[in-house]
Amino acid sequence: DLQICQHRAPTCCTKKMEESYQAAVRRERTQSIQALNFELKYMIVGHITAFQEAFESLLRFAENRTSSLFETAYRPMAKEAAEPVKELFTDISLYILGAETTVESAVLRFFDSLFPLVYSRLINPGITDLSEDYTECLRLTRQDINPFGHYSKNMVTELSKSLWASRMLSQALSLGIEVINTTEHAALTKECSRALVKMQYCPHCQGLTLIRPCVGYCLNVMRGCLASVSELDAQWREYISTLEYLTNEMAASHDLEIALSGMWNSINEAILHAQLNGPQLSATVDKVCGQPRQQEGNLSSASIVPVKEVTEAKTLVMAHSSLNSKRREFINYMKRSRTFYASIAERLCDGDLVMRDSSTCWNGEDVV
């Protein structure tokens, strides 16, 4: 009653043993593909973690610089500016991780929150009545009167260019893991599991437990079993090219490190621009939002303090070189895995599974 290991000679197998063999080859095939995938997956997961750590390190660095700008140059509003600064960098971090948000909305939301503070603490420091309605009016007016000049738009442009590649790379790495996981759990067809049993276990039914399959036979069986996985070859090669393109984009002119480390300077220039145009802004705001209550006495607006660049270059250089070396190491490894799916059958037939020398081997029907 054997279905797979039918042979002229007497046999020590039963139908139940054949079923056990089918379960065994399914398990073994999954394990051997997992073993092949392990190194590749380990590298991708390791680099996802390494990239995220490098991004977080750069974001913290940029956030600290921006916070210290307010604490040193714009002390009257430093405490209230802390929350908008924190929100801005949280939004950027979420954007890199693939959240449904844009760099433009994050930056403009920050400048919307910043304008009421700049207006009431620096341009008109005598304002005492900063009601919710008045604050909201200032936020909305920011979009019409553009108090920060071209600096807010420039910041959007610079960050969008540099963060786009980081976001795409982050998503692409996650996609790579998804693809690898899917191939690990690809179901074996009934024909495939029968062919594997015939190749690996039918000799056992003749008492030939030490005989292994012939190389050519193994390759034919594996290629048939893994045809659907091998079809990924063209897309996998394209995927590696995309990763290469994205890592080059990150390292090229739209440098993430330069864009993030220059944020504090863009914000400083934007605030200086608003202060220099204070009288015109006040005239427009008074028409739109009305005149708020002022303290008694004639308070002059806060003096404009241009900020010299704080040299924290060492931290930035370390983060920069760390991210660059990770990019190079990662893309060199991934380029070596270009043929991963094309050569999967060959790799599974390598090693202990088959006879490599001139010894006798099993061809599916007999020992040759």
UniProtKB/TrEMBL annotation:
Signal peptide: none annotated. Pfam families: Glypican. PROSITE patterns: GLYPICAN. GO terms for biological process: cell migration; positive regulation of canonical Wnt signaling pathway; regulation of protein localization to membrane. InterPro entries: Glypican (IPR001863), Glypican_CS (IPR019803). One of its GO terms (cellular component) is extracellular region. It is found in: Cell membrane. Keywords: Cell membrane, Glycoprotein, GPI-anchor, Heparan sulfate, Lipoprotein, Membrane, Proteoglycan, Signal. Belongs to the glypican family. Cell surface proteoglycan. This is GPC5 protein.
